[in-house]
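Regression test attached.
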Amino acid sequence: MAEKNVTLFINGVRTTVSASSTVMQAADAVGISIPRLCYHPSLSVIGACRVCIVEVEAQRNPVVSCAFPVQEGMKVNTSSPLLRRLRRDIVELILDNHPQDCQTCERNGTCELQKLAFDMGVKTRMFAGERKRFPVDTSSPVHRNPEKCILCGRCVRVCDEVQGVHNLSVQHRGFHNVVAPAHDGKMIDSICIHCGQCVNVCPTAAFTEQDATESVFEALSNPDLHVVVHTAPAIRATIGEGFGFRPGTPVTGKLVTALRMAGFHKVFDTNFGADLTIVEESTEFLSRVQKKERLPLITSCSPGWVNFMERFYPELIPLTSTCKSPMSMLSTLLKTYYAQQIGVDPEKIFVVAVMPCTAKKFEAKRPEHMAPWGKPYTDAVLTTRELVWMLKCLGVDFHNLEDGAFDSPLGVSSGAADIFGATGGVMEAALRTAYEKITGQELETLDFETVRGVEGVKETSIQINGLTINIGVANGLQNAKNLLDRVASGERQYHIIEIMACPGGCVAGGGQPYPPRGMHVLDPELGRLRAKALYSIDGSKSLRKSHENPAIELLYENFLGAPNSHLCHELLHTHYEPKTPRGVK
Amino acid sequence: MKNELLQQEKDKAVAILPEPVVNTIQDCLKKKNPNSHLISVLHAVQDHFGFLAREHMDAVSVLMQIPSAKVTGVASFYHYFNFTPRGKHRVSLCMGTACFVKGSGKVLDKLQDLLGIKVGETSADGQFSIDVARCVGACALAPVMIVDEKVYAGVKPDQVVKILGEYGFEPKKAKK
């Protein structure tokens, strides 16, 4: 069925758009970006902020363009003295109920409200009055500061619509309106899975990540500590954005050099942990396939997914891979194997992990990932954003850095590890290894195109030695729900499922840089560009299979024994428990 | 994939709520848009307990499978719902425009003074609680005060003691 079009006039410019468009979309099409605040292109429309008002002929009052449908012959005016005054007043009213601490705010420079106030020409303050006061909730890795909240509701929408968690809602009424978990509870006591997507979509600093930069700076200046860092696969594809590189620019070498300049004694690669994960997980998978038990195997790299699984799908605990995530595997090895190798007391090693993720901060502090001496294997988790800030604070001229190389042996990795940062990447890496382990033959084409791409759910089947392996891949937890419900209903049967909590995978994680102008968080194009950087790194490597990583082979030979050995289980595997409060699926 | 944990949780919720409310919820779940009946379910819960406790709302969330944050979001939006136990006798004063113009503000002052509590609170002996209504739709009777189910019309401040007396109020006893 052909879609119906309508023709309308925006500031006198004739334009033809689909009949299902809104006035805002029609204006965007003719190059007029109507000011907006609560609107987010990947979320539902609620028309809460009223900033995007326009005049429509024959309408008595201005209308909100994000929610107003186009009509044939409509005449729209997006700028008039009245509209400019009204928009300025709306923003001014929001500001007057907002802490006026821009200079010391976490979002200084990236705040959408700050930018909007400037764009709308707010120069004076007209509306003095009472300001709402709420305590800041710093109980979890995702900090919630309702005083900075402007009630745009993006966090509520992303939590509901994209993640299916439904942890946030607007509570109370009128002046007492506040976005909070049930019963105005603390984030740590709620069903929050710490994915950080609320941080990503928040226009202000009402949601931010827990700060780890101070503890890292302190460790770096402590002469008694051996401070090592490892960086997740996705960081090399995104950190450049923090320094003005175009999204999708891989900057692995500069990242390594920058970390050395920051003072880290050794710079390792979480990729090594990713390769190790693949070897462990594929061994686990093959053993389950042979025994025909506990299938499908579900991946466990994404801490947001693990949190979600424990609260929403505890019945899937037996199916979830017992492998620790690459971060936790590598951190554990750094305080066991590596400590032995260099002859340093593991309690004197300070492990910093740079992650695209806020849930990793939670994972690092889980009791399951504590060393026997009561300290976590991962001492501090920095998000990509935090590392960008630290490097700026240190005055590192990122653009002009020479390329550096990761330290050996825990910095050696295959291309299969690089693609862990994109949805489908863990699956592809696992297939490369599983295929060769089952058949004993070399894989001809390493690229599994069917599991690539930013679609929410991907399904495919591959033949290995006459055995059909059904594969499911989901990113974004609402998509994961849809996929898992199909499994529960018996509609689909998979052998292996990869789930990443964030839409697009780690490249769009809750700790990634706020995107540059013209792009937005949750933009599939942004995810595609960032993933492309990872696939290009993979494609340029000659080592592209985890099990062929010589450093991994050496590690098994010298330390771990065989994959899934007793020592492996002790150090590299974990367990899960149902958590309360439970979420509603 | 079995889901015993969810069933356990539902059993617990059933034990918390009175049977008629559980039945109401089961009926709602059979209807077309079960979630749209949340408010009427919350009414039923409050009618039974006199208020909505955390565990009551969580039980509703589990049985209706509506996220807990949405249940508390709805409940906290409406003035009708309250979250602390109410007095044996609920005194409700209309503060709608007509009643206010006719002096319900002064009646409220007197009420608060006599009972030693503020709007939304319950007296220490658990006998009385005060609420204000936005408009009860009986403007011709302004100012209107409702105690339990009984409506008092044209209430003057000096009549409050007598009205409360009908419910066992003794001026000295209630003072702290």
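Expected vs. actual: identical. Chain A has a mean pLDDT of 96.
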